[in-house]
Amino acid sequence: MIVTLTPNPSLDRALDVDRLEVGEVNRAHAAHVHPGGKGINVSRVLARQGVETRAVLPVGGADGDYLVRLLHEHQVPAVPVPIAGDTRTNLTLVDSRGTTTKVNAPGPQLSAAEVDALLAAVEAQLVSRPAALVAAGSLPAGAGESFFVRLAGLAARYSVPLVLDTSGTPFTRAVRAGGLCLVKPNDEELADLVGRELSTVGDVVEAAHEVMSVGTKAVLVSLGAHGALLVLADGTWWAGGPALVPLSTVGAGDTTLAGYLGATGTPAERLRAAVAWGRAAVMMPGTAVPDPADVDVEAVHVIENPDPRLALKEL
Length: 315
Known about the structure:
Shape: globular
Distance between the termini: 34 Å
Number of domains: 1
Radius of gyration: 19 Å
Strand content: 25-35%
Low-confidence stretches: none
CATH topology: UDP-N-acetylmuramoyl-L-alanine:D-glutamate ligase
Mean pLDDT: 95
Structural class: alpha/beta
CATH class: Alpha Beta
CATH superfamily: Ribokinase
């Protein structure tokens, strides 16, 4: 069992257009609605892999009820925590070239009591000692910048590995507090965390080791079209494949993370699976989740200890 927490979930509405014209009337030729939020995306992909999962999330209003119904339709058991505010809706516009434009709503403000209730709902899941707790996505107003530090304390109390995928100050505070099993930033988020530009493989690996030196066991860095890097204490691996023309890049990083968590075998094998799932995700509309049949592991190759002098754009 892998439990996910999405502090700021959403309904993800995607519209496909031939060409997006800013300031003009645009007509979509297809529309998609999916349960959204990074942790929710992870649970959806894990469920497709046959991995038992449960999604904890705050919900409010009609869109919150709709979100829970959609999760049920996707066969993802949900633990909804009622809040007074309305669950947000995010909008994605995708043109025929695969260019994705995303507008994320800020989400509701949580009261102190609602934040405590959300953490209590997570703790109730930790009692049964799941294989991992995945906390992912942005924080709603009211949660506090130390929310993930509090969450790490709960996970440590029950000896449950905590996987974190977020950004900004909450990410920085959680990393500095230590106690994380795995973090999954993209290269820009990792650069923000360490406070410098990351241009080469060596830059990323050095930054990952800096993160690990204060209490994180592993760093999985998504590089968009250039694959992903996995950094552990005893090695580094890169995985990637031929260029793709994406239908939508939304949720691809979440799918990569779920692919890694759901896989077994060596670090190289798990990374290969992760990238294969991420590549499959960009070929789906909106935030649709690929099936195992959509995943082409053979198209992904892995390099152990890649040349640190390589520029990321050359991968």
